[in-house]
Amino acid sequence: MHNQVLDAWYTHSLFTWRWWIGVLLIVIPLALWIKFRNKESSDRLQYAGLIVAIISAHLDYIGTFFGLWKYDYDVHPAFSTYIPFSIFILPITVMFLIQTKPKTNLFIKALLFAIFSLIALPIVDWIGIYDPVKWNYLYSFVIQFFIYILAYFISRKNKFNELIK
After folding, report:
1. Model confidence over 139-155: pLDDT tens digits?
2. Does a structural domain hold residue 109?
3. What is the number of domains present in the chain?
4. Is the residue at 19 inside a domain?
């Protein structure tokens, strides 16, 4: 079975224009993050980003497992989630939103993040990367709203103590 998946990926996905879009969706956000991140707050922001990546990847796995949506062009066949979204775009977008204008109301930023899903998902559906088999974009809107709120509160935590030798 694994050989069939790998063969199908080699034949139908690898180096296609949709595959290259996936690669760019990894490289561009990562390069922007490295260049423009707030270096004094990197650890705190990346902790929040890691939580977003973990939650997003798990929800993506659950959604694809139950056939709620599917991805037709994976960047790499070994991952059951679409890596550009779960591990790069969503966490990096959250980290940028948290670091930019930190005094802005968190619900406004959560709303912006949720609206982002209403814009991005139809685009990747239209170009044939994402297929919402039994899924409505509004579900993602609500989920993204709450993911941002959770990440915001995690980024504000001051409960870390120093490590003692």
Report:
1. 999 999 999 999 999 99
2. yes
3. 1
4. yes
Cα separation values, 59 from 2, 13, 66, 148, Å: 23, 23, 11, 14
Quick check: is 160 in a domain?
A: no
* Position 163 in a domain: no
- Residue 161's pLDDT is 67
Cα distance between residue 80 and residue 51, in whole Å:
18
Q: How far apart are CA 143 and CA 73, in angstroms?
A: 24
- DSSP state, residue 62: H
The sign of the CA dihedral 150, 123, 60, 89 is: negative
Element (H, E) at 144: helix 137-155
| Domain with 81 in it | 2-155
Looking only at the bridges linking them, the beta strands covering 70-71 and 130-131 are: antiparallel
